[in-house]
């Protein structure tokens, strides 16, 4: 015969938090430390959440300002608004533009090949 303990609320040491069991799930208040969370269908954090490693295999929806120190994107990136860079942007691959592009100042230090027309409404200086 198995034994069980049933509780609606557990309180940890003073100031560290409480665990409440509700019909909607477990509610933890206060400081929470864990080494692994798995099998969750939802995790709601009100306040600051800190993780040394975060592996997300689905969509991320961020509302508000996001400060990212280092971003590596391995697939297609789509922006519905402006992309603003206050520093340089280094592109190691091709740039494919299907629509209108307004470039105020372009410096090309290598071979440039155009398979279509190049139209200049202003001056076009070709030094080669």
Give a short synopsis of this structure.
By secondary structure, this protein is largely without helices or strands.
N- and C-termini, Cα separation: 89 Å
Mean pLDDT: 76
* Beta-strand residue percentage: 5-15%
Instruction: Kindly state the percentage of residues in helix.
Output: under 10%
Broad structural category: little secondary structure
List how many beta strands DSSP finds.
3
Q: Rough shape?
A: rod-shaped
Total helical segments:
0
Main sheet record: 3 strands, antiparallel
Low-confidence stretches: none
What topology, given as strand order, has the largest sheet? 1-2-3
Radius of gyration: 27 Å
Helix and strand string, N-terminal first?
EEE
Q: What would your notes on this structure say?
A:
The chain is built from no helices and 3 strands. It is largely without helices or strands. Strands 1-2-3 form a 3-stranded antiparallel β-sheet, with no helix packed on it. A hairpin with a 2-residue loop joins β2 and β3 (25-30). The termini are far apart.
Descriptive labels:
little secondary structure; 128 residues
Show the helix and strand layout:
Elements: E1 9-11, E2 17-22, E3 25-30
Antiparallel strand pairs: 1-2, 2-3
